[in-house]
Amino acid sequence: MGTDTLAIDHAKENIREIIINPSGIHILGVSKLSREFDHLGMDTWHACEKEVIRPEMLAKPLDIRTAIMSFTETLFETILNVLDMNDAPSAPTLDGAVDGRIRNGIIVYRSAIGAPTAGMLLEELIASGIRRIIMIGLAGSITPRCRIGDLVVPTWGIREEGTSYHYLPPGHPVKPSHETLAELKAALGDIAYSEGGIWSTDAPFRESITKVQDYQKAGAVAVDMECTALMAISTFRKVDFVSLIVISDEVFRDEWSEGFDTDHLKKSINSACQVLKGFLSDE
Question: Taking a C-beta distance cutoff of 8 angstroms, is the pair 93, 107 a contact?
Fold first, then answer.
């Protein structure tokens, strides 16, 4: 067995290095590596140097300008139904994608859940020639004015996922593309929707009521796991991005309320996909 090195937080300022080798476990002093990097924060994640692995290395020739990203089976299948793409050929395999279809200048992907995998898929889509991305997703409401089945258009974001900090420094605002946002609102027409901030997190099981209330007061209306990362990547890569969210659950009370399997939510998802169809037809 080779030598494995593990870092253990023995105390907040006493990180020790443990080496496991065939002869046993040896505790050394505070490691030089831990001392060197323990104080560094997210402001160091945004590197300007050339990357070792670049998305164009994994790009596929798509010859398509617009891509649709979704995250759940129900959303993906409804998009295909509404766009009459159930029998469309499979889209090229890209990292982060669970499934995809392509036809008549439209490409639809179902991404794995979470900012890192969604970001990987978005990067490869952009490298493959995509210049406009529409995200159709589900999110939890953090305000009583958005209930299960309501539509939300995120106009800015609270970055509590890690991916975005590799593209934009802390404090840099994230938001959708101005013109594409206006086009989405026009496609919504008379359909009721809310707009405001979206909070994206890597830890859905750590959404405390205090944090929910604080972000609600700041103007956020929903919480998901991907949106702010995709906003940041799109800004960094200079492509258009917009998202349309359907509220699937509510986290603004002490008890969680969800409607994932309800007919009400399914109807709202269908409405969102009809908006998407109108949006695409106006291109």
Answer: no
CA–CA distance, 53 with 93 (Å, rounded to integer): 18
pLDDT digits (tens, 9 = 90+) for 15-73: 333 333 444 444 444 445 445 555 567 777 877 778 899 999 999 999 999 999 999 99
- Label residue 80 by pLDDT band (50, 70, 90): very high
**Single-letter code of the amino acid located at 143:** T
Closest among 131, 55, 58, 63 to 93, alpha carbons compared:
58
Cα 94 to Cα 66, 101, 283: the distances in Å are 16, 12, 25
21 and 76 co-located in one domain: no
93 and 191 within one domain = yes
Range of the domain at 251: 55-281
User: In this structure, which amino acid lies at residue 126?
Assistant: I
Task: Please name the amino acid found at residue 55.
Answer: P
Give dist(CA 105, CA 197) in Å, integer: 31
> Same domain, yes or no, for 123 and 246?
yes
pLDDT tens for 230-269 read 999 999 999 999 999 999 999 999 999 999 999 999 999 9
Whether residues 120 and 27 share a domain: the answer is no
Taking the model in full, what pTM does it have? 0.86
The span from the CA of 50 to the CA of 64, in Å, is: 27
DSSP 88: P
**What is the C-alpha to C-alpha distance for residues 152 and 221, in angstroms, rounded to an integer?**
8
| Cα-only R_g, the chain | 21
Who's near 192: CB < 8 A, 6+ residues apart?
A: 150, 151
Residues 105 and 217 grouped into a single domain: yes
Name the DSSP letter for residue 77. H
Number of H helices, E strands in the chain: 7, 12
- CA–CA gap between residue 6 and residue 28 (Å, rounded): 11
Do 151 and 202 fall into the same domain? Answer: yes
